[in-house]
Write a sequence for this structure.
């Protein structure tokens, strides 16, 4: 089975300038996802989709192929799926089409060795069409509706965490790994579609980079992990 990994890494970033090139524990952020893909036993090709020459050079040095992303797909409001479809089109011109597409977002750098292959195996064993990694979330969610604060649970009968039934547990996307059958991605133009499966990850490896503090926090996790994250 041909499996493609796509790592989207545009040059612009409002929150953290040049985020994908920012060093995390001694190497550029984008390199963490490249190394995770190259460490997979199932991924045949690893492609970085970027509009930025410096990111392209770093990606190639780390062992990835590069697809040059057009400027119209690299704006602040550009969704990820069009760049995935663009990468598929670029590889199709070479006569190569994968059966599965794995999306790895650089902002989720903590992937333990074997995780990607486990996600692929889960999708195949479940006969699913797409898969996303998730992290369990606590059920005590509140919202503001119609100008009033309301709970999504019965706070008068607050359950203990250990007493929550499996079917009542909540999970959030952690953005780490998405696996999609090519025909679903092409047909739905979305990374998720058809029969969807999820792969739970623990809170530590679900850490994402959204701001400056996240770099500090994740570096501490890496230091404490003593090689758990495949650091070289």
């Amino acid at each position: 089975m041909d499996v493609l990994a796509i790592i989207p890494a545009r040059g612009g970033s409002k929150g953290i300038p040049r985020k994908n090139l920012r060093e995390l524990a001694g190497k550029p952020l984008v390199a963490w996802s490249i190394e995770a893909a190259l460490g997979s036993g199932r991924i045949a090709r690893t492609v970085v989709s970027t509009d930025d020459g410096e990111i392209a050079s770093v990606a190639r040095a780390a062992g990835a192929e590069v697809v040059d992303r057009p400027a119209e797909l690299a704006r602040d409001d550009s969704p990820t799926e069009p760049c995935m479809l663009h990468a598929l089109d670029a590889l199709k011109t070479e006569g190569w089409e994968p059966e599965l597409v794995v999306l790895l977002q650089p902002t989720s750098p903590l992937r333990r060795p074997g995780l990607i292959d486990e996600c692929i195996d889960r999708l195949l064993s479940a006969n699913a069409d797409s898969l996303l990694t998730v992290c369990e979330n606590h059920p005590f969610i509140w919202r503001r509706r119609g100008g009033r604060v309301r709970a999504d649970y019965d706070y008068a009968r607050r359950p203990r965490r250990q007493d929550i039934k499996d079917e009542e547990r909540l999970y959030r996307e952690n953005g780490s790994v998405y696996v999609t059958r090519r025909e679903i991605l092409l047909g739905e133009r979305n990374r998720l579609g058809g029969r969807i499966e999820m792969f739970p990850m623990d809170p530590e490896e679900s850490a994402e980079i959204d701001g400056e503090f996240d770099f500090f926090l994740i570096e501490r996790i890496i230091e404490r992990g003593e090689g758990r994250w495949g650091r070289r």
